[in-house]
UniProtKB/TrEMBL annotation:
Pfam family, one: DUF1989
PANTHER family linked: RE64534P
InterPro entries in UniProt: DUF1989
Official protein name in the record: DUF1989 domain-containing protein
Positions of the DUF1989 domain: 44-220
Length: 255
């Protein structure tokens, strides 16, 4: 006979720590002060590559799509101590949720566990959670990599967010071991209701869409323009070049 269990309604695991709740008015003001200041950096992450940049605490970063729909894989390190303190996607997911919304924060690893950045603007916030549980900007997936590609297809390949990020961080003395689970910006993902498997959908992001985050410490940031493009084609299948687009990065500093 099949065993039965008592039913209990779900309880949210964590009481949100005070540091996870920001004043929206304060962060809106910080954002506007930065935007009214000077633009200290502008760069393009070409399609199917990754780039790095640095930010000072208080800087605002806007990542936008200048040409077309494209997802990005983002990594963060403490600029002063990158080998030890980096973004912790798992705990960020538990403190907030699988998909980040504006005013959620991106947390660092143990023993620090503190905000590295705060998400302050999302041109796609109206997407919300769709009928399949799909939503944007997840901290649930990892990053695409050539090792899983080989397991699935049997083929060798160098060309994934993991390999691009690994290449990009070399100029900062970092390597493959420093690349970590990502914030998957513009990506539309969820878990199937029946089997709880990670799924993705074509990104609803379009040319001109953007997100912004404020740095809470001096940061080294790396962003990969995913070779899956808008993720409308399943991993393991050929993604045509015209499905992939560059991403634009701008950093603003209050003066
Ligand atoms: Zn990728």
């Amino acid at each position: 006979m099949k065993r039965t269990f008592d039913y209990h309604p779900p309880t949210i695991c964590y009481d949100k720590p005070a540091a996870a709740i920001v004043s929206q008015a304060e962060y809106d003001a910080k954002r506007l002060r930065a935007l009214a200041g000077i633009k200290v950096l502008e760069l393009i992450v070409p399609k199917k590559t990754a780039r790095t940049w640095t930010m000072q605490a208080g800087d605002l970063c806007r990542v936008s799509l200048p040409e077309g729909s494209q997802v990005g894989d983002l990594n963060l390190w403490n600029l002063e101590n990158p080998r030890q303190e980096r973004f912790f996607s798992g705990k960020t997911r538990q403190i907030h949720s699988t998909h980040l919304k504006t005013y959620d924060r991106l947390w660092s690893c143990f023993p620090y566990l503190r905000p590295m950045a705060t998400f302050v603007k999302d041109s796609l916030e109206d997407y919300g959670i769709d009928r399949d549980g799909g939503s944007l900007h997840d901290v649930a997936g990892t990053r695409c990599d050539d090792y899983i590609y080989k397991l699935i297809t049997g083929k060798d390949r160098v060309g994934s967010c993991h390999s691009y990020l690994t290449e990009a961080v070399k100029e900062h003395g970092l390597g493959e071991q420093d690349v970590h689970d990502t914030w998957n910006i513009f990506m539309c993902t969820g878990f199937t209701r029946d089997t709880q498997q990670y799924f993705c959908k074509p990104s609803p992001a379009r040319r001109g869409d953007h997100i912004e985050f404020l740095a809470e410490m001096n940061l080294l940031v790396a962003l990969s323009a995913c070779p899956q493009g808008d993720v409308s084609i399943q991993v393991g299948q050929q993604v045509p070049d015209e499905k992939c687009f560059p991403m634009q990065v701008e950093v603003f500093r209050a003066s």
